[in-house]
Amino acid sequence: MKKITIFIVLLISVTSCVSTKSTLKNVDDNAPDLVLSKNNTFIIKEFSKDKKYGYNPDYPINIFYRNTKDEALNETRFLNALAGPNGEKITYTRLETCCPFPTKRSDMGAGFLNVYELKWEGQKKPITLYLNIYEKGILMVPMGLNLKKE
Fold first, then answer.
1. Strand order from edge to edge, sheet including 127-132
2. What DSSP string runs through 73-136?
3. Of 49, 70, 98, 137, which residue is most buried, by most CB within 10 angstroms?
4. Nearest to residue 117, comparing CAs of 106, 131, 105, 138?
5. Which 3 state secondary structure label does DSSP give 141?
6. Of 129, 134, 47, whose CA–CA distance to 95 is shortest?
7. What phi, psi does 107 have (nearest 5°)?
8. Which helix H or strand E contains 62, and what residues bound it?
9. What is the rounded distance in angstroms from the CA atom of residue 4 to the CA atom of residue 144?
10. Could you tell me which of 102, 86, 103, 99 has the C-alpha nearest to residue 128?
11. Residue 108 binned pLDDT confidence (cut-offs 50, 70, 90)
């Protein structure tokens, strides 16, 4: 009886980790496909006017590009296109993976957000961005950042 109870508790805890309904607010499967520049970064033409875009796990930066087999490559293509607010060179570090959500673009049926910390010279405190390699959306520069000059 004790083993059955432990098994049921374990089963409930495992299945409760991934919700069946996504909390992501800015997924757009009709968004145009992402395009690469000659510098192997994504071409970004829009600047977000939403303070939550990229800074909130419910409003991640959706960088789905063809497949998710090499997630770091797509994240690098996005982050390397960015600069600080006055064109400063940024450095970034991946902090963690978090926030599971359901997706059809993963063999597991679930996706995760990757959390990055961005820094640049003269900055008072680093910023944190949430990136999603599994879903599509309009790619924009988050508020407070700029595009790198080519």
1. 61-62, 127-132, 110-120, 90-102
2. HHHHHHHTTEE-TTSPPEEEEEEEEEEEEE-SSSTTSEEEEEEEEEEETT-SS-EEEEEESSS-
3. 137
4. 131
5. strand
6. 129
7. -60, -30
8. strand 61-62
9. 53
10. 99
11. confident
Structure tokens at 136: 């599509």
**More confident site: 67 or 114:** 114
Mean pLDDT computed over every residue of the chain: 86
Torsion angle of C-alpha atoms 21, 105, 46, 39, degrees rounded to 10: 150
Residue 103: pLDDT over 50: yes
State both tokens at 113: 């957000």
Please name the residue ranges forming H helices in 1-62: 2-15
* pLDDT(71) > 90: no
Q: What are phi and psi of 137, to 5 degrees?
A: -175, 170
